[in-house]
Amino acid sequence: MLTGPQYIRYYSTKKPLYTSINGRPALYGLSGVAILGIGSLCVNRHHHAEALSSSSSAGKEGKAFNSYGFISLKLRETQDINHNVKRFRFDLPNEDQVTGLTVSSFVLIRLTKPGTEDKFWPSYVFRPYTPVSMEDDVGFLDLIVKKYDSGGASEQIHNLKPGENVQFFGKPISFRKYEPNKVDSISMIAAGSGITPMVQLLRKIMENPDDQTKVHLLYCNSTEQDILLRDQLMQLEQAHGNQFKVTYCLSRPDNSWNGERGRITAEMIKRYLPEASTNTEVYICGPDGFTNLIKGKKGFFGRGKKGLLEQLGYETGQVHAF
C-alpha cells in the first residue's frame, strides 16, 4: 500500500482533498476513481517502483493505457492557449500506439507534492484530466490545463519542460458510454476548463456521419480571453451548422462584447437549450458551485436545493455531470 499521505482531486475543476488516516490513504467518496482498484492506486512501494521502471511494457495490443500501475509519459511540447492555459502534448511509450481511451473518459496524473520528494514516503497529488486528443490519434496524448492562482498541481504542470516525464495511471476511467442517436438532442453546459470533455464528445458526434444527434452548447466564462478552444468550436459550428450550435456567456465582459452577459440563469437555459423531454440529455462540467447551481445539491436526508434544470422540468436521469 502507498502509506504516505495522498491528495486526490476528482475532476480538474475541483479542489484536492487531503486524505490520510494514520499515515495511510483514505479514498473518500471516489466512486469512479475508487474503482481504480485500491490495489491499483494503492500499490506498495516495491511494486510501484516496478511499474515505473516497466513503462515499455505498457500498452498491450497497441494501447498505451492498458495496464495497472503507473506509466511514464514524456512531455514533447507545450503551446500557450491564453494567459493561464496551455496545451501539453505527451509522447506515448511507442510511437505507433493509440491511447486506448474512449470518449468521455479521463486520465489520472500523479505528481509528487513539493518538499516531499526526498522523504521515505512522499506525498502525492492525483489530478484527473480529460484529453482533447481523439481515440484514433497515434503516438501522443494532448491535455489542456488551466493554471489557477492557488497554485498546486496546475502550477506544477505548467512548470514542466519538454523532455520531462509525468506519471499516469495505466487504466483510463470512463465517465459514461456514449451511444449514437440514443436521444434526439444533447445540451452541454460548461464553464472554463470544463469545456474539454464536451469537445471530446462533440467531435465524436460530429465526425460520425450516421450520428444525427443535435448538440446545443452553452459555454460560460469570466472574460472573452478565458474562452478555450474557441477556434475548434467555431470550425465545428461552421461545418455542422444544422446539427451544432454554441452560445457564449461572459460574467465580466468588456464593452465590445455582443453575446450573453451575466451569470447563467434558468431563463438563459430556456432561451438557448431544448426543452426538457424524454428525447434530450444534459451534460454539465465546471466548478462545484457552477455544477450545483445547475444540477442542484442534495443535503442531509435527501433534502437540498433544486438546481436550475430541475426547475425547468428536467428529470435526474437526464442530467449528467462530469
Automatic annotation (TrEMBL):
It comes from the Eukaryota. It catalyses: 2 Fe(III)-[cytochrome b5] + NADH = 2 Fe(II)-[cytochrome b5] + NAD(+) + H(+). Belongs to the flavoprotein pyridine nucleotide cytochrome reductase family. It is a single-pass membrane protein. Keywords: FAD, Flavoprotein, Mitochondrion, NAD, Oxidoreductase. This is NADH-cytochrome b5 reductase. One of its GO terms (cellular component) is mitochondrial outer membrane. Signal peptide: none annotated. Its main location: mitochondrion. FAD binds at R127, P128, Y129, I144, K146, S154, T196. Its EC number is 1.6.2.2. Residues 68-178 form the FAD-binding FR-type domain. CDD domains: cyt_b5_reduct_like. It is found in: Mitochondrion outer membrane. The keyword Mitochondrion applies. Coiled coil: none annotated. Its cofactor is FAD. One of its GO terms (molecular function) is cytochrome-b5 reductase activity, acting on NADH.
